[in-house]
Amino acid sequence: MQSQKPEKIDFNTEYPCPCRRKGRLVPITLTEAFGCDRCQQIFVVEENGHVLEQLSTTYPYKRAWLWTGGNWRVVHPKLGESYLPIALGIIFVLVIIWLPLALKFANGSGLIKWAMVAVLLAILPALMVWLTYRR
């Protein structure tokens, strides 16, 4: 069984493409980058030679992998680099602070309007997170 400990990426070695199973990563001369012979993606080596990062991507986050000696392991983005803390912060403000204030200052007829606005504003970050993390 191969170890899961990340290995340093060697520029003199060909690796399988982390995006496609049949592609091969070939070093690009005079750069610290690799190119795939199948999917034409370019990958750069980051963090002291241990992380391979996809250079141009349509994903909201940079896709990155660690080489474990036999296969690539996905590196997940840090919590601060995602929309999740922003969405949770917005929901926290709405539920803990804004909604009780709205209930306190709203009269009987305006209560339904305030509640609908609060629900819509809580759904917005949830929709944002869902759109970000779906595949």
Poorly predicted runs of 5 or more residues:
none
List the total number of helices: 2
- Helix and strand succession? EEEEEEEHH
Mean pLDDT: 77
Radius of gyration (CA) equals 23 Å
Structural class: alpha+beta
- Intertermini distance: 30 Å
Fraction of residues in helix: 25-40%
- Main-sheet strand order equals 1-2-3-4-5-6-7
Overall, the morphology is rod-shaped
The tally of beta strands, per DSSP, is: 7
Task: Quickly count the domains.
Answer: 2
Main sheet makeup: 7 strands, antiparallel
Multimerization state = single chain
Task: Describe the fold and architecture.
This protein is of the alpha+beta class. It has helices at residues 84-105, 111-133; strands at 15-16, 24-27, 33-36, 42-46, 51-54, 64-67, 72-75. The longest helix is centred in the C-terminal third of the chain and has 23 residues, at 111-133. The two termini are 30 Å apart.
Give a quick precis of the structure.
With 135 residues, the chain is an alpha+beta fold. It is built from 2 helices and 7 strands.
Task: Give the tags.
alpha+beta; 135 residues; rod-shaped; seven-stranded antiparallel β-sheet
